[in-house]
Design a protein that fits this description.
- By secondary structure, this protein is an alpha/beta fold.
- The protein has 3 domains: 159 residues, Alpha-Beta Complex (Spore Coat Polysaccharide Biosynthesis Protein SpsA, Chain A), CATH 3.90.550; 85 residues, Alpha Horseshoe (Serine Threonine Protein Phosphatase 5, Tetratricopeptide repeat); 103 residues, Serine Threonine Protein Phosphatase 5, Tetratricopeptide repeat (Alpha Horseshoe).
- It has 14 helices and 11 strands.
- Strands 1, 2, 3, 4, 5, 6, 7, 10 and 11 form a 9-stranded mixed sheet that branches. It has a two-stranded antiparallel sheet with strand order 8-9.
- Helix 8 packs antiparallel against helix 9, helix 10 packs antiparallel against helix 11 and helix 11 packs antiparallel against helix 12.
- The chain is globular.
Length: 358
């Protein structure tokens, strides 16, 4: 089977070559849709593909994505962002995924969007490759997505989202507010992202109001869990601690506890100097699992590194130094170059009279 890779771009000259160089290793066709670049992005893209099209920007990412899909001619279509990177081993995995006569209609691939010394720390699965004959479509003016349907597989191939510049802070918020001003009623997913965009732009009271309204609806459960955590932070930002904690605990009524929520509770008890309760919640965080195939956002640090480091500190407070050291070593297996881990290592070598083996 053949694969079309579809990319929408705007002023991405600095990164488009990097992305297309990766795509060329597994794509049979590369479609680039420019939505209004002024920096020579299209000319740079032309070094890799002849299939370059121009789309009049209309404050709708789905419209641009769907225009790109319409230009594809292969058996399967895949989307990338201009600042995405695919390592050689993942290029091979993608090529193998569509080789032969695959039975799936939609493939989910892991998306890594934040890193620590090159190691992914924030990941989630995204619908990434679709059978073109199924005519899948994106929806949503921002944070666009394709509704899952058909035969779905989860691949172990991974895409790295490697930004070198930040988005305009108000871009997505402005798009959503323009929709509201035109009388468009936001669907549940858009309402969730509207609340998040308000939060990111430090409009905490407004964010809290939108997220509270979203939680009353029938939105996706993973978005609701994330909304509870965002709501906790929004209420904390405006000094409403009781509402913050209640919002966080509401996530426990929706699904099994998630590591991030457990770590937040651990931190609350840590700050209150309730060591045993803090230990309980950090242990819970380690036992939660990451639920990544549910499709929600996963901050990997909350699943291992953070609770290990905090348990190290807590057991040190209790004078259980060997146990504290063991948790520090578990943290070190995840991030061997982390400064806090290395400082702790020296501390325990001195306290326990051990030789520091570097």
């Amino acid at each position: 089977m053949t694969l079309s890779v579809c990319i929408i771009v705007r002023d991405e000259k600095e990164v488009i070559g990097r992305c297309l160089n990766c795509a060329a290793k597994f794509a049979d066709e590369i479609i680039v849709v420019d939505t209004g670049s002024c920096d020579g992005t299209a000319e740079e893209a032309a070094k890799f593909t002849k299939d370059i099209y121009f789309f009049d920007w209309c404050d709708d990412f789905s419209a641009a994505r769907n225009y790109a899909l319409d230009k594809a001619s292969c058996d399967f279509v895949m989307w990338l962002d201009a600042d995405d990177v695919v390592t050689d081993d993942n290029c091979i995995k993608i090529k193998q995924l569509v080789a032969g006569s695959p039975s799936f209609d939609m493939a989910y691939l892991k998306y890594a969007a934040a890193f620590d010394n090159g190691t992914p720390t924030f990941t989630y699965y995204r619908e990434r490759i679709f059978r073109r004959s199924k005519n899948y479509r994106f929806s949503g003016a921002v944070h666009e997505a394709v509704t899952p349907s058909g035969i779905i597989v989860y691949s172990d191939a991974e895409i790295y989202h490697k930004k070198i510049k930040e988005n305009t802070p108000l871009r997505n918020l402005n798009i959503l507010q323009k929709q509201i001003a035109r009388g468009i009623c936001l669907d549940e997913r858009s309402k969730f992202y509207y609340g998040r965009e308000l939060f990111y732009n430090k409009m905490y009271a407004e964010s809290a109001a939108v997220l509270e309204e979203f939680l009353k609806g029938d939105g996706w459960i993973e978005n609701k869990i994330e909304a509870c955590i965002n709501l906790y932070r929004a209420y904390c930002a405006i000094g409403q601690k009781e509402k913050a904690v209640n919002a966080l605990l509401k996530s426990f009524m929706l699904a099994p506890p998630r590591s991030e929520a457990c770590c937040i509770l651990g931190e609350l008890f840590f700050d209150a100097n309730d060591v045993n309760s803090a230990i309980y919640w950090y242990q819970c965080a380690l036992n939660c699992g990451n639920y990544e195939k549910n499709g929600g956002f996963v901050n990997v640090d909350y699943c291992g590194f953070i609770p290990y480091m905090q348990l190290c500190v807590l057991y040190d407070k209790l004078g259980e130094y060997e146990k504290a050291e063991s948790y520090n070593e578990l943290a070190g297996k995840i991030k061997p170059l982390n400064k806090n881990y290395l400082n702790n290592k020296k501390y325990f070598c001195a306290r326990l009279g051990k030789e520091d083996k570097k």
